[in-house]
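Dear colleague,

As promised, here are the two records you asked about, laid out in our usual form so they can be pasted straight into your sheet.

NAME FIELD: protein one
SEQUENCE, THEN STRUCTURE:
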Amino acid sequence: MSNFKTSAAQDLTLAGLVHDLNNVFETLSEASELLSADPQWNSLAGAINRAVEQGRRITVSFQESAETVEVESILDNSITSAQDFLLTTHRLPLRFSRKIDAGIRLAGKSGAWERVFVNLFLNASQAMPKGGDIEISARRQEHQIEITVSDNGPGISRDIIDRVFTPGFSTNSTRSGLGLSIVDSIIQSHNGTIQATNGHPCGACFTISVPDLQIPIAREQNAVAAESIPQADINQRS
C-alpha cells in the first residue's frame, strides 16, 4: 500500500508540474501574440513562440513512452532553439554545418535529445563570444551510432577537460555549471556515453555514442521474411 501511495504522489507531482508549466506557456503565447501585432517586435514574437513549442516538447517528453526519432528533425529544432536564444540574449549567431548518414534514428524522446544538443550548442557559444562554426556529424559505427559536435573555438584546457561533466562545475562564476552534466545524464539514461576532446588544430569536440537499436529491428524483419519463405523454396535454393 505504501508503494502505491508513493507512486501516486510522484505521478501527481509530475502531472501538476506539467499542468502548471502549460499555464506558463499559454501566458507566453498570449504575450507573443500581442507583440506580433507590432512589426518592430515581430521577430522576437516568433522566437518566443518557438521557445514555447520547445518547452512543450520537453514537458511532453516526461510523459511519453519510449520511441525513436530522426536525428535530422532533432537537429533542426535544436539549432533553431539555440539561435533564438542567442538572438534574444543579444549574442552573435553560430554557423552550423552537418554531415548526417541517411536514416539515422535515436531511441528516446525528441524533447530529451533536444536538451542534449541545445546545451552543447550553447556551451560552444560561451566559448566563442564573437560567434563561430559548429560542425555536426552522425554515422553508424558497428552496432553504435556515433555523433560528434565540434567547434572552432579555443578548445578545452587540459586542466579541466576531465571535469566538464561534473554537476556545478563551470569556469564562469555567473553560470550554474549544469549544462554539460544534464547532457551527460540524458545520454547515460539512453545507455550511451559522451566524451570531450580537443580538435585539430583547434576547438572542442564532443563525441556521443549510443546503441543503434535499428540493428535488432532489421534482424527481426529479415528473420520474419525468411520464415515466410516456403520450406520447399528454401530447399530448392540450397
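NAME FIELD: protein two
SEQUENCE, THEN STRUCTURE:
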Amino acid sequence: MMAVSIIDEFAETAMDFGLVLYIVLSIAASLKLLLSPYLRVTSLGWIVAIWTLPYVGALTFMLTVVRVRKVDHDQAINHLIAAHAGAPCDHGAVERLGIEYKFLPYFHMEDSQLLKDDEFVDAVCQSIESATSRVWMTTFILSGSVKERILQCLIDAHERGVDVCLLIDRVGSGLLLKPRNNPFELDLPFDVSIFHSSLFRSLLFVEKRLHSKIVLADNEAFIGSHNLRDEVLLENNDSVHNISLRFTGSVVTQLEAVFIDLWKLNAGVDLDSYAGAREWNDEGHDEGHDEGHDEHEKKSNLHSESTVGHKAARIVFSDPIERSYNYSAYLGDLFYSATDRICIWMPYIIPSQAMRRSIIAASKMGLDVRVLFPKKSDSALVDNAHALVLKEFVENGVACALSEGVFDHSKILVIDDVTIIGSTNLDFRSLYRNYEANIEVHDQEFSHTVLAMFDQAFDAADFVDSHEVGQLSHMRNQLTSLIAALY
C-alpha cells in the first residue's frame, strides 16, 4: 500500500511538472512567434495549434470510446427489444453486458423531509445550531451571504465543542489562488480544506472535482442539489430551483463513510465515526435490523421493510479513482430493469450514446418515460448540447418538456419505486470525472411523493413535439455537446 502511495505521489508530481513545462514552453513559443517580423499568418496558425492540440486529442479519444461503446450497446439493446417484442419486462442485471459495479448494501432511512429552495439553508443552519457532537460538510460552491451565515454557524458550533470539518471544491468556490488550508484567508477555528492537491490540474478540464453536497449534523444528514450560494434564495434576482433531502436512520452511517473517505483522500487524516450513528455488523448490515438476513434476502424484502416504518435506502456515489463504483453502469442497470416508469428531472442532460439508447429502448417497450429539460440553463454550451439530446429523444418517442422561468437545478430520478436524489447530473463530468454523492430510496410511498412533484413540474413545462426539433443544427450541437461534456 505504501509503494502504491509513493508511485501515485510521484505520478502526480510528474504530471504537475509536465503541465507547468508545457504551459511555460507554450507561452514562450507564442511570444516568440508573435514578436517575429515574418510569417504572421503562419505564426497565428502555430499558436492555435499549440493551445488546441491537447483538446483535439481529448475529443478524439472521446469520439473513439463513444463509437466502440455505441456499437456494443446497440447490439445489446436490439437483442433485448427483439427478444421481448416490445413488452415491458425485467431484463435482469446489466452485468449481462459485461459491466460490473458495486455499492453499499441497503440500510434504512427513517424520518425524511424534501427541502425546496430557501428551506434548505434554514434547515441546515437549524441542524448546525442544535448539533452537539459533529458537523461535517462538503459543497461544490460556498459564496455570498449564504457563506457568511454558514461560516458563522460553524464557528458557533465549534465554540460549543462540536467537531467541525468543512471540505469545499477549489474550482466551484472560485478559490484557485487561495491557500489550501485557509481558503477564505480568515482565522477560522475549525478544520477547513480545499479539495484539490494540485492548483495546476485544477485549471484544466480533465481534473476531478468535488461536486458532492453533503451535510452531517450528529445523526441527521442532508444530500441533494443545493450549493451554498445566494442563488438558492428565491429573493435573489438570479435564483435557481433546487431540491434536497433531509433524513435520519442507519443510512446516515453510509454517508458518513463516504465523507470519511473524502476527508482522508484530501487531508490525509482519519476521522472517527460518530458514536451516535448505528454500527455495521460483520455482514455489512446495521445492528438492530434484519439480523440473520443476507444481502440477497434484504433486497427481496424491500417492500415489507417499508411497511414497518423504515424505507430501504443506500448511498450511491461516483468515484473516478475506484472504477468499481461505476455510477453509469448502476443507472444502466436501473434503466434495463425498469418495468413501469423512468422520470428524469435534471439541469444537465447530456448522457452517453449508450445511455440514450437504453432510455429510448424503455420508451419503445411501453414504459412511461419522461424527461424534463430546462428551457434555458446557465450555459449556452449546455443549451446547444441539450438540443441534440432533445431531438434524438423526441424523434424516438420519448416524452420531453422544457421548464420555463427560474432555472431548475434539481437532480432527481424516479425509476419504478426507486428514487435517486443527489448531486449527479447526466453528463460526462458527473458520471466519470467528479466525486458525487446520491441517496437511493427504494420505497413506493416515497417514490409517489417525489413523482407527484415531478408531475407538477412536467405538466407546467412546455411539451416538445417532433416538429419543433426538426430544424435543429445537428453538426453544431454535436460539437457543443462534446465541449460541454468536458466542462
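A couple of things worth noting about protein two: Confidence is low (pLDDT under 50) at residues 1-5, 84-101, 278-308. The longest helix spans residues 40-84.

Best,
R.
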